[in-house]
Design goal:
globular, 254 residues, single chain, alpha/beta, five-stranded parallel sheet, two-stranded antiparallel sheet
Amino acid sequence: DGGMAMNTFRGTSIKPQQGDVQPFLEYMAYMFPNEAEYEEVLRWCATLIGRPHIRMAYALLLISKTQGIGKTTLAEQILRPLVGPHNCSVVTDTQLVDSQFNAWLGSKRLIIVNEIYSGQGWKAYHKSKTIITDEFIEVNQKHEKPYTVRNYAHVFACSNSDRAIRMAEEDRRWFIPTVAESKWPREKFSKLRKFLERGGLGHILHWAQNFESLSDLQYVAPGASAPMTERKQRMIEESRSPMVNLAVELAEAV
């Protein structure tokens, strides 16, 4: 607006390097067995990593009842270093929902919630609206005066429960793909770890920065709504009250 500003953004210290990303793509194909949803997750991750100026308007929620399938591998061993650890926060669902302090949100690009579970309450859903879609946020740090900054945060949440969060009928803020329930062989995880340790992160960064030219897919557009999935539709149905479900059943019968 005609004033002066200082850009304080710092990217990742990892350098992009052209190379084979097949181990990463193989891991992603295992994690997301539905092909259409696999491509949508790739778009979300490539946009987050390769286009930091784009703020996507929806969050990613990964649900699997089986533990140890690799959800946190994507969040903390791939996305976190590629976004830059200083641009990330790892929080609990209690911090996300109940805490009055949110210093973990200011000037961050990735918010990782390793286990979100709100039961039957709507509090987590409504509290997350501000974080996911608001252009500006108020940061409240303990013993400091609150201040307002532009919101650059993206939420990556995981859960082992189908009732991770209640979901509104018209929701456009959460992308909930189907996630693998069977564990990947140990040797494949070992191969992936070696790939990441031996320069694979640089290859993924190059892939993300050149995503549209290296694939038939496009980056997520600013303001785009979350794609609907079968798992999300089930969560919407389970979030309805018994009376609403009865009304829906009657309408379908008619």
